[in-house]
């Protein structure tokens, strides 16, 4: 892979800043659409009077499961094809545009159960497009950072995602949701103000994505690229690459499995936090969004601090420490009650969310064979999605066995613990004791 001049310092490089700003834009989908606003609107308002034995909440789970399966099938091949053809930026652009389009289309979903199916389809498509965009986006990390700064750059990018939530969540809450249609006085009949939130989120992502495509250079095609392989050829190559990875870089393959477990635990935390806050700890439903803002603030700070620490002590050390912090917070949360304790322990846990995600991405980049990082990040998305059924399953299973909603936390903690134990045997350094080379391409 071609190399250019050395990367600029991470805090002055316009490419690094543009790369991080894209993640702030992506928060419009992850924080606003999927976690705190539109998914809640679909299940509590659009599907409120849904006939039949299956609830809107259950249908949401099924839709996300199907979306996860699609990502698991497509992610490694899309990453591989983008690597070979030198089209990481183009792939990110296409998937970003499709994510924005699906978000904007959600503004058509009226507050009537007849619109639930279309809303779930659009939400599922948005999840697929957003995940596929992140495959090539994550692979750009090796274009804009050196081995010495990779942790800080990754932490900066991840923290910018939290910053996006910090800014956008209060904007839509105060402007369109609080009271009767927010400060702008948007009509609330037929969910019109919430539908406007989807449109605002789409515009937010579209605007903040632009600097990435203007500033970050495209990688050149692989020297032996030839014609871009077809889908069937890509899957055959994927099988060969997995066998090769098993032979020559088994730590990377083991890390993919370990991270799949604890990342599913992290996803379960994001999915069920609002439910637990309201139904178990007595947090006012109107204040959950405010908790989301506060959690994003401390998570952003944690990601930045973890990135700096990671370049000193290593990715694995930060991941292990963060998982231990999450486990401690969760265990204590099992035995306390009340909104105040939820806020304290929930924010304590949020400190460790950013470093776990960010350092996992960096650890994988350090383990990746040269020229295969996009494909490996595709596998990262695949393995992360392959276990997505475990979090909801264990959460529900422990509730069913105990009859207490609080017990669902035990299922999440078991996933985090399993991921931690599986991670411990993975070497802290890549095979051979040195970091993998990082290609840099700058104008």
Automatic annotation (TrEMBL):
Keywords: Membrane, Transmembrane, Transmembrane helix, Transport. Residues 23-430 form the Major facilitator superfamily (MFS) profile domain. Its main location: membrane. It is a multi-pass membrane protein. The chain crosses the membrane at residues 27-47, 59-79, 91-109, 115-135, 156-176, 196-214, 252-276, 288-309, 318-336, 376-401, 407-426. It comes from the Bacteria. It is found in: Cell membrane. This is MFS transporter. The lineage of its organism: Bacteria, Bacillati, Actinomycetota, Actinomycetes, Pseudonocardiales.
